[in-house]
């Protein structure tokens, strides 16, 4: 079946949850002939070999990139420019590059800087499949099944190249959506980055207090759900916040205005206003949940 | 075994999740001889009879309260004064009254107003066992097993009466804690009422926008967890917010200061500060989770 594989050589930068699951899914679908992995830690790459995520560990991008069909940059957002700088000199004529970063305007800016005239070979992407764990041990061939993947194609991309990247993610079982990079970043600032910031802020606020032990002792299931994302990886979320700084500042500003309005309503004993806000929120949350369960 | 029951007659106001589960648990433990239920809806009380939560539906408090050993007021917070006014004239010498409300200063104020010289017979309580469902159908004999129940005894309560209420909850399998009413309200403003308000505010903020459909379309698991409590009952949470207005305003004010600081850090591109806050929050959240799982 090897001659039918859609991609001959896949190179992944980062063989953890995002990159490792992508490689495992394409291998399971028989759509890659060979996977070469680059990573920052030797132990991580050893694990990736052990788990069958990669066939070889790459050492020199100059040897591995020119004949690669597909490169997935699944490094943390902040390290993406460095990876792009390393591979840019070696991109082959047919090499397509995509990424798995949670923010897209910054990835596009870095790609324009390092890929220059070859920017058309970079099709930015963002798979929406968070999980509590990370690293090669967390990678799973079915991670992306029925999950959303957002591609944010550039004017320089050819329709055929975009279709090839779509196809790779479709082989992983994902549902593909397209947005512009700016739309993507604005939407995810609202529905993902802001909630993380708010959850961290609440836990931090309580943890700083002298009686934090007693406060936490009485926290229950509502607190548990609200703060689950405050256990997310700090450096990763610092980098996402910085990378998506302006849209996130705008969302934070809009949210502060909502809190100011709720503060005023509560101060004025305005039960009608509280009820209106809570009722509208519950209706929207319920509609979302029944839609999301489909 | 009936002669060994700790309580002869239990009267519950509200036979839903909170009151119904209390009655079922005491019945299962063989610690009540008879349960009489009062409720606002005829259909709810019929269900409570059907499910064996109550043995009889009460009609006239003047007939049911004088010989009651224990009265649990498990009505919504805002209806508690009305229930207290209805039963106050009929309290027997031995009748103990407790409640299941989420706020305690307001319950104590109402009890002082209506019970007057009999305030010592009222031992305020708050079982911490939320569930997504409500009504008699949601009641379960094991709802309180290993859950926390906070009692907030008054100076007028005798140690023996407090011990009897503790004992009733212990028969339900709960872990009993004691706080003053003011401590209780301050703690729950921080770990419960504020998170609900914040979660409602986020969903409301997004739901009001023209492009809310597209925003919600890309919301994923982080959003799901953060906003689960925004599907909570609007009137119930309006009443809790109003009942615990001053402590909640203080918490909201403290939280807004945290957001202001995070806004400033993000505006200044201060990754170090973001990292410090996120790291401290994650450590506290993880410590809480491992403690809570014990």
TrEMBL record, chains A, B:
Keyword Acetylation: no
PROSITE patterns: PDH_ADH (PS51176)
One Pfam family named in its UniProt record: PDH_C
Ranges that cross the membrane: none
Keyword hit for Oxidoreductase: yes
UniProtKB keywords: Oxidoreductase
Every Prephenate/arogenate dehydrogenase domain range: 8-294
Coiled-coil spans in chain: none
Record's protein name: Prephenate dehydrogenase/arogenate dehydrogenase family protein
Organism, as annotated: Dentiradicibacter hellwigii
